[in-house]
Structures are given as structure tokens and as C-alpha cells.
Design goal:
- The protein starts with a strand and ends with a helix.
- Helices cover 34% and strands 16% of the residues.
- By secondary structure, the chain is an alpha/beta fold.
Length: 206
């Protein structure tokens, strides 16, 4: 097992602890990360783009003019796509963009994302924030001590004080351990764990 430093809110090292090699020391495959991130982004698409085809447009079904003798091109109903106000030919319709990814692939990709942060020394463990009031400046000062300007904070449980204190800090996002995902890890430069959250992640991914 590898060792990782545990810090307090003053960015002072207070001790070390073991972390599991099966999670934080695995080979990284970009194709698996790409597949999982693609699945996450696809599932977020609303897929609500819609147009009306010629059968859905409200228009007279009467033939616009006689077939022959007018000198003009033949024409049928006013709902034809070539007519002003007519239906749209081959337009978009509501659809589901999501696609399924195997659970084992999802877990493996999450291990790889965590291992990537650990290998790049961008994974930080803190024993706790201990914020006694909702104050953005206090949390900002803690992050500043670690030189973190683009960070994903992972907590073990919902903490209203921490949640509301982090909302107005640019490029900072707070997630509970159960909601950690590959996309958010890769989108942030640093990963900051509250120590109990690390234990939850290790138990879930081991």
C-alpha cells in the first residue's frame, strides 16, 4: 500500500495513512475514461429539439392549383416542406442520447481518474473543515493555504455550512462521496477529500 499525507485546515501535515493500490495505483486507459465521460455527457442532453413534419402542420389539405395548364410547377398540399409555413423535411425530433456503459467499466474508470490525481500529486486529504458558520471567506482562505484555485471537494455527508460556503467560490464544486464521478474529477485540477469520504470511496471501489 502507498502512503498519503493528511492535513489540517492550516495546510499542516498531521499524519500519514495507507491508501489502497487497487484504487490509487492502477494503469490508466484513456479509452475507458473517454467512454464513461461520453456516457455522462450524453445522458445530460435534453434531446428536446423538435420540429413539425408535413403531417403535423396545421394547413389546408386542398390542392393549391390544378395539376396542368397554369405554367407553374405542380403542387399538392400547403403543408409541403417547400411551401412557406409548411412542415420541415428531416427535422429533429425528441430523442434519448444516453447510452449504457458496463458497471465494471464505470468502476474501473473511476479508479483510473482517482489514480491520475494521486500520481500527479493533486489529491489532498484533510481531516475536516470544522466550519462553525456559513462564511465563504473562511473556506476560501483554507483553500488558499493549499494553493487550490480549481478544486473538487468530496465530503462524507451533507454539510449545510460547507455547502453554502462553497457556492460562491469560482471553479469550486462540492460533492458527497456517493456522487463522485469521472467527469467532475477530470474537470477539476485538484481533488480535496475530507478523510471519512476517502474511506467510503475505498470501501465502494475495493
Amino acid at each position: 500500500m502507498a502512503l498519503i499525507d493528511i492535513y489540517n485546515v492550516n495546510a499542516e501535515k498531521i499524519r500519514q495513512r495507507d491508501i489502497k493500490d487497487t484504487i490509487f495505483n492502477v494503469a490508466i486507459r484513456e479509452d475507458m475514461l473517454h467512454q464513461v465521460v461520453g456516457s455522462q455527457l450524453a445522458s445530460r442532453r435534453s434531446g428536446s429539439a423538435s420540429t413539425k413534419g408535413r403531417s403535423e402542420v396545421k394547413a389546408s389539405g386542398r390542392k393549391l392549383w390544378r395539376q396542368k395548364g397554369t405554367g407553374r410547377a405542380r403542387a399538392g398540399a400547403a403543408s409541403s416542406p417547400i411551401m412557406r409555413g409548411g412542415g420541415v423535411a428531416f427535422g429533429p425530433s425528441p430523442r434519448d442520447y444516453s447510452f449504457k456503459v458496463n458497471k465494471k467499466v464505470k468502476k474501473a474508470a473511476l479508479r483510473m481518474a482517482l489514480a491520475d490525481k494521486f500520481k500527479e500529486k493533486k489529491l489532498i486529504i484533510i481531516d475536516g473543515f470544522n466550519l462553525d458558520e456559513i462564511k465563504t471567506r473562511k473556506l476560501y482562505e483554507i483553500l488558499k493555504k493549499f494553493n487550490l484555485d480549481n478544486v473538487l471537494i468530496v465530503s462524507d455527508k451533507y454539510d449545510e455550512v460547507l455547502d453554502k460556503s462553497s457556492r460562491n467560490i469560482k471553479k469550486t464544486k462540492l460533492l458527497r462521496a456517493e456522487g463522485i464521478n469521472v467527469y467532475d474529477i477530470l474537470c477539476h485540477k485538484h481533488l480535496l477529500f475530507v478523510e471519512p469520504a476517502l474511506e467510503i470511496i475505498e470501501e465502494a471501489l475495493d
